[in-house]
Amino acid sequence: FVEAYYAAAPSIPELRAFHIAFAMYRAAVGVSGAAMRAESGAVPDFAAGAEARRFARAYARAGIEAIESWD
Questions:
Q1: Strands (E), 1-56
Q2: Which of 28, 33, 45, 66 has CA atoms 20 to 30 A from the CA of 60?
Q3: Cα distance between residue 42 and residue 18, in whole Å
Q4: What 3-state class would DSSP assign to 11?
Q5: 22-69 pLDDT, tens per residue?
Q6: 69 CB burial (10 A radius; 0-12, 13-18, 19+)
Q7: Distance CA 30, CA 42 (A)
Q8: Cα separation values, 18 from 23, 25, 26, 65, Å
Q9: What pTM did the predictor assign?
């Protein structure tokens, strides 16, 4: 995907670990909000909260990995 993106827009600056970490933490926060709504009963499927928490942790781990790969 990234190669196709740069081919279509060659003047765009290169994606850095900071951008990936920021995106992963942003996704983790968004998914955590969805989990909170599911766990509060605002979503009919309570199990969705546990699944959303799993995704939030995965996004957060990906953000940490991006930070650790920072050059």
A1: none
A2: 45
A3: 34
A4: coil
A5: 999 999 999 999 899 888 888 777 788 889 999 999 999 999 999 998
A6: exposed
A7: 16
A8: 9, 11, 12, 11
A9: 0.75
